[in-house]
């Protein structure tokens, strides 16, 4: 036999649970007047159930997206079906502050919402229930994971010393440009550049000064490229740039501007001014390299020709030139 023949205890328990559950519960009538407002709603809004009962939801909370929300609720009344509103659609419906210490980074509570049709004893939908779930912890965790992944991705693509693309990632960009050329016959230029007599800088001023010089050149390279270009640190003191939709002739302007900028600038290290120059090689895709590595090799030939011809200069790959003398060094 039941200890609670009238069901009064059960009702009491249910009311207690509705009041204390960590989920927002609101019941609205057909005119969107509030019939039930549980403890969660009271705690987060500061409005007590007694003071709000019978009042119109949209009048009491004018900041709610009333037109949009009314439409959603009307369809629940009409179709007698549940509706869901995800935080991804709208981060929140009720602008509640976020008080959770762990997820203190969010200044408001992210919410998932369910709109539930409530039937009367005669089966008519006379009310709807709005159920509000606080999903702030999940959302903030996801955002932190996403940010960490983005950071990791950036780190895996970036050269630590110069913040330019590292060789591996630069090669992916270069290959992408080469593939684009194969498909659409687009043009692009490749520039390889190398600091002249860098060994001497290291020997004279030390490795730390050498690193500063590398950083300085990288900075000038990074400053000079467009968003669609891709600059990378190819090796120790060698850099590479892919210039999209750029002929060798146009790339020569870029290269010469950069070369002059480097020659004019100096790096002050421990009170001493260090000057350096760079040599550059250019090859565009109009030269029809048979694959992307041949594109790099041809550009390298031009670079080594620039070195051989005296450094602090730019050389453009010439398909009719004889590179036998520099070929060994370029390999
Ligand atoms: N400080 C520093 N030096 C580096 C780094 N990577 C490579 N190097 C040095 O760069 C120098 C490159 O020297 P070489 O390849 O002989 O060429 P170079 O002295 O620049 O002469 P040319 O290229 O022929 O003008 C070597 O001494 C390397 O040790 C780096 O990350 N930091």
UniProtKB/TrEMBL annotation:
It holds the Pfam family GGDEF. InterPro entries: Diguanylate_Cyclase, GGDEF_dom, Nucleotide_cyclase, PAS, PAS-like_dom_sf, Rev_trsase/Diguanyl_cyclase. Residues 309-331 are annotated as: Disordered. GO terms for molecular function: diguanylate cyclase activity. Residues 186-319 form the GGDEF domain. It comes from the Bacteria. Its EC number is 2.7.7.65. Transmembrane segments: none annotated. GO terms for biological process: cell adhesion involved in single-species biofilm formation; negative regulation of bacterial-type flagellum-dependent cell motility. Its cofactor is Mg(2+). It catalyses: 2 GTP = 3',3'-c-di-GMP + 2 diphosphate. PROSITE patterns: GGDEF. One of its GO terms (cellular component) is plasma membrane. This is diguanylate cyclase. The lineage of its organism: Bacteria, Pseudomonadati, Pseudomonadota, Gammaproteobacteria, Alteromonadales.
């Amino acid at each position: 036999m039941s200890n609670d023949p009238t069901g009064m205890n059960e009702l009491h328990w249910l009311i207690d649970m509705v009041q204390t559950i960590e989920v927002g519960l609101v019941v609205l009538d057909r005119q969107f007047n509030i019939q039930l407002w549980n403890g969660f709603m009271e705690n987060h809004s500061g409005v007590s159930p007694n003071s709000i009962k019978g009042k119109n939801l949209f009048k009491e909370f004018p900041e709610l997206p009333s037109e949009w929300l009314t439409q959603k609720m009307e369809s629940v009344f009409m179709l007698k079906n549940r509706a869901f509103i995800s935080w991804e659609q709208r981060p929140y419906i009720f602008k509640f502050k976020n008080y959770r210490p762990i997820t203190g980074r969010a200044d408001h509570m992210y919410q998932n919402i369910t709109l539930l049709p409530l039937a009367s004893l005669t089966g008519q939908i006379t009310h709807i229930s709005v159920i509000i779930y606080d999903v702030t912890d999940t959302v903030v965790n996801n955002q932190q994971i996403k940010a960490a992944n983005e950071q990791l991705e950036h780190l895996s693509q970036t050269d630590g010393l110069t913040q330019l693309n590292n060789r591996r990632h630069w090669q992916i960009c270069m290959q992408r440009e080469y593939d684009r050329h194969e498909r659409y016959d687009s043009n692009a230029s490749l520039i390889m550049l190398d600091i002249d007599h860098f060994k001497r800088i290291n020997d004279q001023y030390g490795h730390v000064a050498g690193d500063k010089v590398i950083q300085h050149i990288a900075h000038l390279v990074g400053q000079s490229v467009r968003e669609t270009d891709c600059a990378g640190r190819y090796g120790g003191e060698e850099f590479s740039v892919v210039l999209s939709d750029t002929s060798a002739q146009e790339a020569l302007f870029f290269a010469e501007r950069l070369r002059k900028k480097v020659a004019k600038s100096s790096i002050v290290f421990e009170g001493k001014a260090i000057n350096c120059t760079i040599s550059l090689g250019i090859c565009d895709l109009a030269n029809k390299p048979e694959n992307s590595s041949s594109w790099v090799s041809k550009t390298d030939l031009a670079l080594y020709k620039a070195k051989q011809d005296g450094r602090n200069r730019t050389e453009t790959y010439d398909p009719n030139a004889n590179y036998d003398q520099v070929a060994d060094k370029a390999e």
